[in-house]
Each structure stands twice: as C-alpha cells, then as structure tokens.
Amino acid sequence: MRSIPRRSFLARSLAAAAGLALPAWARNGLAQPGESAPTPAAAFDSLRVERPSAPPDSLREGFPSVLLAAAGDTVLGYNLQDHFDAQLAAGQTREQLWPLYFACVRQLLDQADLSIVNLECGFTERGEKLAKNFNFRARPELVEILKHGGVDVVSLANNHIRDYGRAGVEDTIATLDRSGIRHFGAGRNLRVARRPCILERQGLRVGLLGYYFQAPPDMLEPAQIYATAKRWGAAGCYQNLDCIRAMVRADVEELIPRVDIAVPFFHWGKEGSYEVRDYQIELAHLCVDLGCKAVLGAHPHRLQGVELYRGAPIFYSLGNFVYGGIKEPSDRLSALARMRIGRAGSIEADLVPLHFTTWPERAFQPSVLDGVEREDALRRIAELSRSFPATLPQLATYLGDAQPVPGR
Fold this sequence. Notes:
Layout: H1 9-15, H2 24-28, E1 65-75, H3 79-89, H4 94-97, H5 106-111, E2 114-119, E3 122-123, E4 137-138, H6 143-149, E5 153-155, H7 165-179, E6 182-184, E7 186-187, H8 190-193, E8 197-201, E9 204-212, E10 233-234, H9 241-255, E11 261-267, H10 278-290, E12 295-298, E13 306-309, E14 312-315, E15 320-323, E16 333-342, E17 347-355, E18 367-368, H11 371-384, H12 393-396
Parallel strand pairs: 1-2, 1-15, 2-5, 3-4, 5-6, 9-11, 11-12, 12-14
Antiparallel strand pairs: 1-16, 7-10, 8-9, 13-14, 16-17, 17-18
C-alpha cells in the first residue's frame, strides 16, 4: 500500500484534524460511476510509546518503521452477499459495487504500509456444510471487495474457515492466491497452518502468525475446525491451554530471529462479551515476553479493552469490520487499530473508532466516527481498558488519572 510521509506522528497529531465529508453515494450505500474513494483519515492522536532500549528519535525521518492497520471480523457472505445481489438486481454494476463496502475506510488502509483483517468466511460454493451454530461463506468473486478495499493480508485462523469442509478451505486459499492477497493461520495441515506470513515493507520484515483458541466454557465449535497432521483447517488447539501455550512459544521463538517485527493475530474470547478472559491475557503476554511488538485479537464481535504491556499494544478484540453476519446489531461500535513500529522497537499506536454498519443507509460499510460520537467512543473504549495497568495514551487521557507506561 502507499506509505504516508515518514514524519513524527506526534507532530501530526497536533497538526491535522478528523472530519469526514462523504459523497452522496457513500451516504446512501450506492456507488456512482467516476467518484473516487472518500474520507480523509483521522489524525493519529496517540502519544509516542517507546521501549527504553530504543533511541528517542527512532521514529523520525530517515529511521525505518512500518505502519500497520488492523481490523476485526470481516464476512463478505451471508447478509452482505444478499445486499450485493439486491443492488445488482436494482441496476448497479459489479464495478460500482466492488469498492462500496470499504469506501469510508479505504483511505485509512491506503495510508498503511500493511493492512490486515480477520477473514471470517470462506470463498467457496462447494463443500459439505459442517454441523455448527453458524456457517459463513461467500462466492469467490466477492474477493474483489477485499482487493478494492485495499486489504493486503488476512488471517484465516478462526471458527469459520472450515464451515464447508476441506473444499471450502482449498477454494478460499486458491481464491486469495489468485487475487494476490496474502494469508496466514490455515492450510492443508497443521504444519502449514502454523507457518508465518512474512512480508517486507519499508525495508523491514514483518511476520504474522494466526491462531484460533478458546478455553472452556467459551468454546462452542466442533474440533473439526482445526487443522491436524492430515486435515485442512485452522491453526490452534482445541480447548487445551497447555497445547496452545507450547505451540505459540515454539512458533514465536522460531519467527523472532527471522523478522524485524512479529505480530500474532488470535481468534479467542467469549462471543458477545466485553470481558477479556485470563487465557487471552496470558497468551498475549507470552507473545510480548518472547519479542512480539503487538498482539491482535478478534472473535467476540465486540470491542474489548486495549492493554499496553511492556510497551507493546494488545488489542484483545477489534470487533467487527466489513461484517455481513448481522444487519442491525445492538452494538455497532468497532475500531481500526494503527501501529507505527520501528526497527529499534519504538511503537506508536492508536484506534480510529467506527460504526461497522448502519442499516440500511450504509449497510455493511464501516464509517469513521467524528466529533461527539468519536469522543464518546474513545471514552467507552477507555473504560473497557481501565482494569489494565496501562493502556494507550490516547485512551488513558479519558480515565482521569494518567496510567503508567511500563517498559522492558
């Protein structure tokens, strides 16, 4: 993706303002020919977070760093596919609809060196439906929505990658490969599913790992979701905390010497809950202790609190993003996480608050919050983060008393 100018984010936070002027087609949920993607990005308004070992000017011009943008659960099938088909029937063309769903956030993803989402649906029209609570899939052609949205890489380590069996996993990976979208967290066996996705940006090597894990009583899915030595599926362990500890430790220790920046993406926690479970905290801290620069999470379909641990941001649940799993949710709040990470270990991070859908005006289109809505959203996320010893400076300002920033 296009890189933003490499000047201090702290300086930018004093210089730029958020504020969205959406064209009519984006407000109304319909694309019109010839109009470009809307919405300037909100200012990156966090304060700098630096590990003590990093030089104080490590994020200034001339020092290598990478801007990552990460978002949560993304489902392009189910209600979204129905909406897409209804717009086709109403006279819209595919070329008009491909960019629609990411229109209000596309510029934020374009500004990043690397944009990541959790793809919680397969791209397939084959396969046998697995017996479980919900099964998500999308027609393979709808991968164009990801391409037009500016997504670089997706995590497949989740409870829906094998909703339609081996054929569903095979078709999803083949579709992503043909489209040039990188992926991690699933594969033809567990060894392949555990492989990191390593990409180079701004001269730095970024390594991504993906895992699906839920401890009892959170787990509601069949064990068949997981890859084994002979089965296609997701990376992770079925309800066995000792197993996932050992797996994560082995994979992270093997990855750290190969990359400048390591980031795991977990699918974990209790669905529908704002509560961060002890096992989420344990696994996240393990990753940071081993050298990961940040930790990402999804699955609860709710935003959960953000912790700052030894200088590394931990986004326990990023909520929903371009999510066709529900039309009119009781809680529309979501967020895009942004992290500027330098080779020497310096990290800046913040959240861009979103409403992930507005039915029917902006169906399945995340929109950036502004003004009072944005302030209320950040205040709410700060409250969800209050129990942690430290959180992002952006959020700590809403808690009344500044939280300490622990370091290595």
